[in-house]
Design a protein that fits this description.
Length: 215
């Protein structure tokens, strides 16, 4: 039996849809009346763990789950020791630099040296500005990053953007995209090499589905 880490939140419905195509049915997680965080799939071939998206690669890296589905943005920030297997082509978003529309900044290089940039993605933001050779202070926030520039705490933010509506409603505009993100299938490296619980069958079915979708 294999264990699959499923992400809570926006990726969950499509995660369950794709896993069902691969023969694993965790639809019970969509029942609003359930509070279970671990369930067997309908066939009894696997069990699912429902965890925060940021924790999916942790469960996979430490071997409590052999497979997981999580956004590339989480993988890029955390850099876990997991096998990256399939781009699942849903959950599109991008990591962007944004500033107040009223500001004069229209490029990251316009930002002042030693200025402040608020972000949940501290590592990605730090790496990006280091690549520009622009010294900035990264201010770590866990929510409502848009308030950084609004309150004057920071000149800019680095945050995930999907529709851009939140930025617009808070008077912010994107000035640079660091990278784009979609949901990815990941695996525990050793479990994948050993084909624990025939997890390779699930991987190949998902690969075939992605090829079919792309054609």
């Amino acid at each position: 039996m294999i264990t699959v880490a499923l992400p809570k939140g926006e990726l969950l419905k499509n995660t369950i849809r794709l896993l069902k195509i691969a023969g694993l049915d965790f639809s019970a997680f969509l029942d609003s009346g359930t509070r279970q965080l671990q369930i067997p799939d309908a066939s009894g071939k696997a069990k699912g763990l429902l965890v925060r998206a940021q924790d999916v690669p942790v469960y996979v890296e430490y071997g409590q789950a052999q497979l997981g589905i999580v956004g590339y943005d989480v993988l890029r920030e955390k850099k876990p020791n997991v096998a990256h297997l399939v781009d699942l082509q849903f959950g599109y978003c991008r990591l962007s630099v944004a500033v107040p529309e009223s500001s004069s900044y229209r490029s990251p290089l316009d930002l002042p040296a030693n200025g402040r940039v608020a972000s949940k993605y501290v590592n990605c933001a730090r790496e990006y500005f280091h690549s520009l050779d622009l010294p900035v202070e990264i201010v770590p926030l866990s929510g409502s990053v848009e308030l950084g520039p609004i309150t004057g705490m920071s000149e800019a933010i680095v945050d995930i953007v999907s529709t851009g509506r939140t930025l617009k409603e808070n008077g912010l505009i994107e000035i640079e995209t660091l990278y784009e993100s979609t949901a990815r299938l990941i695996a525990h490296p050793l479990s994948y090499r050993l084909n624990t619980g025939n997890l390779g069958d699930v991987v190949e079915k998902l690969r075939a589905e992605m090829l079919l979708t792309a054609s």
